[in-house]
């Protein structure tokens, strides 16, 4: 789960940087608008090139501010949508895992080991977390692989990756765990 968090932090930083740029442009736009107004009230000629450039800079900065504010709004909406989708996928993944585990008739201990395998823990770490012997974890992992019809850790994990990447993931009403065996 480190990668989605890293991506979320990158998007948050991007939004913060964009907000900072908008603020900086707003300050610059205020300066140029104030300078143009001061020049006009000082009875400067409107045809003055310097005044025209300042007015153009002010208008450009205001247009940039409006554009960036729109981009920031869209970025925040996208971030919200992605966060909602990620939470939904996590919930669906839990349902998918339970459906598979039920179909394979895993015991509670085997379910715990299977979840930790999916999280990427090795047998030694699983043994430490579960306060059991490494040999017990190896035996439970072997039973999980046998019941799932997989040849080992990599193939076991790929069962879930296939399900995540399948078009049926959003419609996981009738998961048939045996379709992956073989």
What can you tell me about this protein's structure?
With about 180 residues, the chain is mostly helical. It has 2 domains: about 1-85; about 105-180, Orthogonal Bundle (Arc Repressor Mutant, subunit A). It has helices at about 1-40, 50-105, 110-120, 125-130, 135-150, 155-165. Helix 1 runs antiparallel to helix 2, helix 3 (about 110-120) crosses helix 5 and helix 4 packs across helix 5. It is rod-shaped and about 90 Å long. Residues about 170-180 have low confidence and may be disordered.
Provide the fold topology:
Layout: H1 2-41, H2 49-104, H3 108-118, H4 123-130, H5 134-148, H6 153-165
Helix pairs in contact: 1-2, 3-5, 4-5
Task: Quickly list its features.
182 residues, mainly alpha, Arc Repressor Mutant, subunit A, 2 domains, 79% helix
Q: What profile does the largest beta sheet have?
A: none
Parts with pLDDT < 50 across at least 5 consecutive residues: 170-182
- If helices are DSSP runs of H or I spanning 4 or more residues, what is the number of helices? 6
Q: Which band does the percent of strand residues land in? A: under 5%
**Class by alpha and beta content:** mainly alpha
Average pLDDT confidence is 81
Overall shape: it is: rod-shaped
How large, in whole angstroms, is the Cα Rg?
29 Å
Helix and strand pattern: HHHHHH
How much helicity do the residues have? Answer: over 70%
Number of strands: 0
Transmembrane segments: 48-69
Domain HTH luxR-type: 103-160
Pfam families: GerE (PF00196)
Keywords: Membrane, Transmembrane, Transmembrane helix
């Amino acid at each position: 789960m480190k990668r989605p968090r890293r991506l979320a932090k990158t998007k948050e930083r991007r939004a913060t940087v964009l907000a900072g740029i908008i603020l900086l442009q707003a300050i610059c736009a205020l300066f140029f608008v104030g300078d143009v107004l001061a020049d006009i009230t000082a009875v400067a000629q409107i045809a003055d090139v310097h005044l025209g450039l300042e007015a153009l800079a002010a208008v450009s900065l205001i247009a940039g501010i409006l554009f960036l504010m729109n981009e920031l709004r869209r970025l925040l909406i996208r971030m919200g949508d992605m966060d909602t989708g990620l939470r939904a996928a996590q919930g669906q993944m839990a349902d998918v895992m339970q459906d598979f585990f039920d179909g394979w008739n895993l015991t509670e201990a085997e379910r715990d080991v299977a979840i930790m395998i999916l999280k990427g823990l090795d047998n030694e770490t699983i043994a430490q977390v579960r306060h059991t012997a490494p040999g017990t974890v190896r035996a439970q992992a072997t039973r999980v692989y046998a019941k799932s019809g997989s040849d080992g850790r990599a193939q076991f994990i790929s069962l879930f990756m296939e399900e995540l990447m399948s078009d049926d993931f959003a419609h996981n009403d009738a998961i048939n765990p045996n379709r992956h065996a073989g």
